[in-house]
Specification:
Distance between the termini: 152 Å
Family: Belongs to the MscS (TC 1.A.23) family.
Radius of gyration: 40 Å
Order of helices and strands: HHHHHEEEEHEEEHEEEH
GO molecular function: mechanosensitive monoatomic ion channel activity
Membrane topology: Multi-pass membrane protein
Strand order of the largest sheet: 4-3-2-1-5
Pfam families: MS_channel_1st, MS_channel_1st_1, MS_channel_2nd, MS_channel_3rd
Main location: membrane
CATH topology of the largest domain: Helix Hairpins
CATH architecture of the largest domain: Orthogonal Bundle
Number of strands: 10
Largest sheet: 5 strands, antiparallel
Structural class: alpha+beta
Number of domains: 3
Length: about 290
């Protein structure tokens, strides 16, 4: 066997001499390359694996925190995916740098691409940022009755980019979040109660003390009116054609519209029963005969 191996080795050496190949030199170069780049490649692999592990841990932790705070599920998925992609980009760049690959141009390309995407999606990113602020600070929630940027109704859905509001006559209004947060937001639901304002008018010939007592009785007969804050009835204005009263009971938000229509009906019926005149604008026209 030993003689066969020696013969085979001698044959290889003779073949390499005929072909002009320096086997010993190639072997030395391979060993030199492995010693020169092997540690760098190994370090790059370690950086990538450890970095990926840390990124996954951070992503999972962020997701858990957002879910515990009951952040919108769509926002959780979008935010964690975006954070994971950004962190993995840095890990890959660090690994490539370790093996001696020039990453300056790569970083520049990524930056330029990010800038281009940011400019192209400027409006969408603005809506996204506004959506994040709405979800975090909660100026309104699903089910709240709001007035925001000209839209009025019940909030049906708060998305990442838009808010959906359903009006009282069931029209759906979709508002970009940046528009919804750019002005004053009136939230009628947040406090749980709401003041009902009606301004009944009577003629100047009616007894205002009697009118006030009738209005107070209407409020007292309705059990859905809150005792605190205390309801208010009083003369609000002596207008051109009528004496206007302020009729202001406090009610729960869910009872507002039912009681609004109920009280208007009751006021009219009681005024008719008590012969209280509800005036309407009148104009006296005087005709003079020209001489």
């Amino acid at each position: 066997m030993a003689q066969e191996e020696v013969a085979s080795s001698g044959a290889i050496e003779k073949s390499s001499e005929l072909l002009g190949i320096d086997i010993n030199g190639i072997g030395e170069k391979i060993v030199e390359a492995v010693s020169l780049y092997g540690l760098s490649v190994l370090a790059a692999v370690i950086i990538f694996l450890v970095g990926k592990f840390i990124v996954n841990l951070i992503t999972k932790a962020v997701r858990n925190v957002m879910e515990k705070r009951k952040v919108d599920a769509s926002l959780v998925g979008f935010a964690t995916s975006l954070a994971h992609a950004l962190m993995m980009t840095f890990v890959i760049i660090a690994a490539l740098t370790q093996v001696g690959i020039e990453t300056t141009s790569l970083v520049a390309v990524v930056g330029a691409a990010g800038l281009a995407v940011g400019l192209a999606l400027q409006g969408s990113l603005s809506n996204f940022a506004a959506g994040v602020l709405i979800i975090i600070f909660k100026p309104y929630r699903v089910g709240d009755y709001v007035v925001a940027s000209g839209a009025e109704g019940v909030v049906e859905e708060i998305g990442i980019f838009t808010t959906t509001v359903v009006t009282l006559d069931h029209r759906t209004q979709i508002i970009p979040n940046s528009v919804a947060t750019s002005g004053v937001i009136e939230n009628y639901t947040k406090k749980g109660i709401r003041r009902l304002d009606i301004t009944p008018g009577v003629s100047y010939g009616d007894d205002i003390r009697k009118v006030k007592k009738i209005l107070e009785d209407i409020i007292a007969a309705e059990p859905r009116v809150l005792a605190d804050p205390k309801p208010f009835v009083g003369v609000a204005e002596m207008a051109d054609s009528s004496v206007n009263f302020a009729f202001r009971p406090w009610v729960k938000v869910g009872d507002y519209w039912d009681l609004f229509f109920h009280f208007n009906e009751q006021i009219k019926l009681r005024f008719d029963e008590e012969d209280i005149t509800i005036p309407f604008p009148q104009r006296d026209v005087h005709l003079f005969q020209q001489k």
